[in-house]
Amino acid sequence: MYVPLLIIGGGLSGLAAALRFARFIPDVLLLEQHSRIGGLNSYYYRNNRLFETGLHAITNYAPAAVKNAPLNRLLRQLKIKRKELDLHQQNQSEIRFLNQQSLLFSNDFSLFAAEIANKFPASYPGFQKLLQLIDQYDPFTPLPFVSAKKVLQEHLQDTLLTDMLLCPLMYYGSSIERDMDLGQFVIMFRAIFLEGMFRPGGTIKDLLDLLLKHYTDHGGKIKTKATVKRILHTGKKIHGVLLSDGQEIRCDYILSTIGSEETFTLLDEPSGLETLPRMGFVETIFELEKSAELKQGHERTIIFYNTAEHFLYQQPDPLVDFNSGVICLPQNFQDLPESSFQEVRTTHLANYSEWKSLQQDKSSYNSAKDRVALTSLAVAEKILGNFAQNIVYRDTFTPLTIERFTAKKNGAIYGNPVKIKDGDIGYDNLYLAGTDQGFLGIIGSMLSGVSIVNQHILPRL
């Protein structure tokens, strides 16, 4: 079998790349090792309903009139109309530290700016200078690592405010411990604070079905349960892939969205990339009766919290660090269709190695998941009020869950801490897209796939 372009990985980055290419050349094949597309942003069925695995909220919201915004650029590239997505903006979100200091934000940036001006008046002039830096900074130019924490501290002269700004951006996109690359910080600051968050009216399945329909309508093909065993190459020239079932597929170009180390493993070549700890997380979904009543904070879309004296975004020594985390209420977006349930999702930092040590003993692993879920519940109830009596179903994901269903090394959803911004990993006709290229969030990962197709593949065919 032969195709001009072969894409490895059926997540959102791979889907967007495939759809963009198929608009010009329909002969493209998308390979997904799982039985279902979506990668980190997929779904499963339990308790007689659909649960989403990754879609808390989508960043980079922009009104239709802002033509150069990432969301609108992506929709133009894929020829998808905004009305097909049925966009719903967040209500309002919060950064809450030490149960004392709080910053509210929404898709109206003036709210966030006013919060900082009122609560950190001494830092506000520096914050305005920081905004100028963010406006002028090009985060996609390959540069050596620049500490975002150092830049923030120099501008704000306030450790608490620095940590409060970093907390949401780290939890929603940092692949390294204790800091962020300035370029990654700029991307996430624009995506979360300057633009904002939204979600489609339907489920992640509806979004995936929409993308897949556009793709197949253009003649694109997809093969699920297709595990790539090896990428075939002579020197730096790619010839195709060998699947685990023995099938060989030849191609002119490969776009890999599965991660840098994962791609080099298929090449049977060392990556040469620096080895750094990868960030892992646990997430628990609590499904509640619709009638459940939550106290102050129930109207928030997302609450990013920290209860420790200092915010530490790092791999914890125990299984999980409950001192900080994310509490998301996915029903709290404006004008969402009426639902028969409520949902609370909690996310915390986790230690992959500690979870891995429990893997061989299913009873110990499940007991650990139960303990984590109950502790996370207690943390959430301190903020939202008691809701344990209203829980009708719960489920907990660990880094091992992510590794099992997505093959992400160490179950690290943000991939390798070392990013390859231009997607060039040193081969003539093989490129990288997705998280390890450094584009973050759902919109960012999709633009990543589109950009590689536009810059490196379509011009050469």
UniProtKB/TrEMBL annotation:
Record carries keyword Lyase: no
Gene3D superfamilies recorded: FAD/NAD(P)-binding domain (3.50.50.60)
SUPFAM superfamilies: FAD/NAD(P)-binding domain (SSF51905)
Domain of life according to the entry: Bacteria
Signal sequence residues: none
Pfam families in alphabetical order: Amino_oxidase (PF01593)
UniProt xrefs under InterPro entries: Amino_oxidase, FAD/NAD-bd_sf
Keyword Repressor: no
Domain (Amine oxidase): residue spans on this chain: 12-260
This protein's UniProt keywords: Oxidoreductase
Family membership noted in the UniProt record: Belongs to the carotenoid/retinoid oxidoreductase family.
Name of protein: NAD(P)/FAD-dependent oxidoreductase
Source species of the chain: Desulfotalea psychrophila
Lineage: Bacteria, Pseudomonadati, Thermodesulfobacteriota, Desulfobulbia, Desulfobulbales
